[in-house]
Amino acid sequence: MTETPAPEPTEDEDARRADLVEAFEQKAVRLAKRERLNAERADAAGGAYPVALPITATIPDLRARFGDLEAGAETGETAAVAGRVVFSRNTGKLCFATLQAGDGSRIQAMVSLASVGDESLQSWKDLVDLGDHVFVAGEVISSRRGELSVMVSKWAIASKAILPLPNMYAELSEETRVRSRFLDLIVRDRARETVVARAKVNASLRATFAERGFIEVETPMLQVQHGGASARPFITNSNAFDADLYLRIAPELFLKRAVVGGIDRVFEINRNFRNEGADSTHSPEFAMLEAYQAYSDYNGIADLTQRLIQDAAVAVAGSTVVTWADGTEYDLGGQWDRVSMYDSLSAASGRAISPQTSLDELLVFAAEVGLEAPPHATHGKLVEELWEHFVKGSLTRPTFVMDFPLDTSPLVREHRSIAGVVEKWDLYVRGFELATGYSELVDPVIQRERFTEQAKLVASGDLEAMRIDEEFLRALEHGMPPSGGMGMGIDRLLMAITGLGIRETILFPLVK
Length: 512
Fold this sequence. Notes:
- By secondary structure, the chain is an alpha+beta fold.
- The chain has helices spanning 11-40, 59-66, 113-116, 118-127, 174-179, 181-187, 189-211, 252-260, 298-317, 341-349, 359-368, 379-390, 444-459, 470-476, 490-498, 502-505, and strands at residues 74-90, 94-100, 106-112, 133-142, 148-159, 215-216, 222-223, 234-238, 243-247, 265-273, 285-294, 321-323, 329-331, 337-340, 399-405, 421-429, 432-439, 483-489.
- The strands form four sheets. An eight-stranded mixed β-sheet has the order 6-10-11-18-17-16-15-14, with helices on both faces.
- Belongs to the class-II aminoacyl-tRNA synthetase family.
């Protein structure tokens, strides 16, 4: 039998192997330096990793105070700072290193023979590598080239890096950025800026809610029954209760219990989990905002949602006109359009489609336009599929798509004047659904009927349909006031403001 020869390695594979060999060799060298540091500091706690250092300032502080020094200027002020070495150049009697703080700000360390002596200078050359955290103390000056610097009088390694940094001047692959976010944060300004932007968004959302009298709560992540959305859940098991539990797909049914209990304006920002596909706009684990306001409706909630997003944009970008990662400007300002789902579908498709259009007619039309019917097709599911096919791609400005089919929205109140639809909107920004809002269904009798219809879908094999939730129905039977509610993905809000994909907006996304 003739053996098939192994394929020749590609250039990329050769480069990866070379990188692995180099990293292995560097690791061995650095481990030896770690041992030397531990031996030299045998009487000091931590050895190559000291417990504490006498730091008196941060790199951002020094840049704020002395960033405008003229070239060659001296301050006469001594500071002790620490940072990660991201650039190093050793010469005979003078060594230079660039130290980077966590926020990306930098300062130069100058280690000279005259300031530290021959033994200390040689130790610097022998022991300090790119990636090490280094403590330096000395006078703050500006170099002859105008670089803000510390003229080092004493120094110490604060944390020895055993593995080398990636090339600071080469673009990291997307795979590396996602799988090794810690490296991404070290190397790339955009990664750090995105973390800051997310924090600003969350702070802005909470501030906008606080101004309007909303109370933030936390509801269960582990639930005995999943509900609040149409999605496939993750299932786990509790040893203590000897029962299956579900990671929540939405906090809705518990937040509504809070409204029943008298918390008239309530919101939560927390994690949801949906056992579904992952793509550029979906992640199995994601951050979600949900809010409910008693004595409001889907129009009032749309106004609130627009304000929340516009305030968040201003918090991050300083304006409602945001600049995306690719340089495109997008205007989140002004009053956003509100269009009817059925009317916009009819206009775009050239065929009159209403809540009374039969399922058979919709199936025929879908086949005519080459659209595959979804599993367990209903009137509402097909209308939504057709709307996405004909209308979704044409939306450029932020747009509230109003008045959805009744059978796809089991937790929503029927429209006050249009038969066969519910008072629900989806907000589309940048071509994807960013948020959804309702006039909430508060009649427990109708809610039970809707749950019963959903249970029939479950029995027919629809894994995303809801079950009957008796505890939630019991809460509704105690009386829930007329209310508006909304849900919005925090990751998607970052996408709308920054123009990034969902894996970039999540600090540590789930990957295989």
